[in-house]
């Protein structure tokens, strides 16, 4: 129950309930004002309102009780009737059709009444407005008849009187209440919208860790519960981010320590391998020694890649960009790999054509590492194609270095296939130097493009 009372639904139901109460109070106040006004003006109380049947019966009874009435007595009767029914008008027509007496009559009445006029008068008044009652004087009907007329509005119920007198005020009151209800509802929903927008803004804002910012909980309604849930989510994300950083740091330290610890025994193995080369070995021994050298080389390179990847991930890899002639740099780097490609019987296609701007701002060590990783991948994984192409090209939007092979593609299984750390290093270094690159690979070969936008 306490939770419901704090809810937005309970608050809005209270607004509707208050509007209904105010509307009823408006009707009550107007009725009270009307009753007090009628009492002060001398009108009969509302519980003494009369009906058409009562008036008609009373008029007939009074007329039938009159015998040999004089003009003065009739005038006195008219006066008493007028005091009781303030809106009534009366007149007396004698047995000869002459107008003897009239009171509160506004329209002009003929002094002589014919039977034809009397019938037309009755026909005109029947069922119309004003309400008309015609009664013969006395029981023998020899003293003519008396007529009383009252507007039919005099018989209206009290609520009609209230509306007739205060209808405009009532309408204004209802309009004011509706307007207040709309204003209060607008303020109510604007407050809800404002809080939701604040929550949306908090979701869009990010702190230094890239996480949303917690919001202040002002109320304990549904939105407050949503804000509390949002804060719990942010707390969980922050804890997860912290654990991720700790695990990442532990992983980097582990890789760095392993790389360092593996270098020493690997150096000893390489030294022993070099010593064995001085000995007189059989053909099988020489082949085995050559396989050992290849494994040592691959392992050393893997250790270097692991160390480089760890340093790059931690943004601790030394970066010293400078402007170099990129075509000359690619040519010199490729020249160091020529013997390896020729030994593997690769066909080498080089077309380092002039480009729009050959002066690239890069770190020579980083770019050399990129080329070495790519050339080594071609040598290790594209032996089936025995082909490598290195070209430069200029387009409308960028200059590009293109390295292609005719191997089986990156999706083809290879016994020398690693975990892809070399390409990860290439990706990180390329992006750090504000360059772009893409790979197209299928069963007919692989093409890598390194682009520099202009």
How would you portray this structure in words?
- It comes from Oceanobacillus limi.
- It is an enzyme of class 2 (transferase).
- Residues 257-454 form the Histidine kinase domain.
- The chain has 454 residues and is an alpha+beta fold.
- Among the domains are: 2-43 and 158-197, no CATH class; 67-154, Beta-Lactamase; 318-453, Heat Shock Protein 90, CATH 3.30.565.
- Helix content is 57%, strand content 15%.
- The protein is built from eleven helices and eleven strands.
- The protein has helices at residues 2-5, 8-40, 52-64, 71-84, 115-125, 158-204, 222-277, 283-313, 326-343, 364-381, 421-432; strands spanning 89-93, 99-103, 131-136, 145-150, 322-325, 347-351, 359-362, 387-394, 398-405, 436-442, 445-453.
- Helix 7 (222-277) packs antiparallel against helix 8 and helix 9 runs parallel beside helix 10 (364-381).
- The chain is rod-shaped.
- The model is unreliable at 415-419 (pLDDT under 50).
CATH level-four homologous superfamily name of the domain at 318-453? Histidine kinase-like ATPase, C-terminal domain
Number of strands: 11
CATH topology descriptor of the domain at 318-453: Heat Shock Protein 90
Shape: rod-shaped
GO molecular function: ATP binding; phosphorelay sensor kinase activity
Domain Histidine kinase: 257-454
Protein name: histidine kinase
Membrane topology: Multi-pass membrane protein
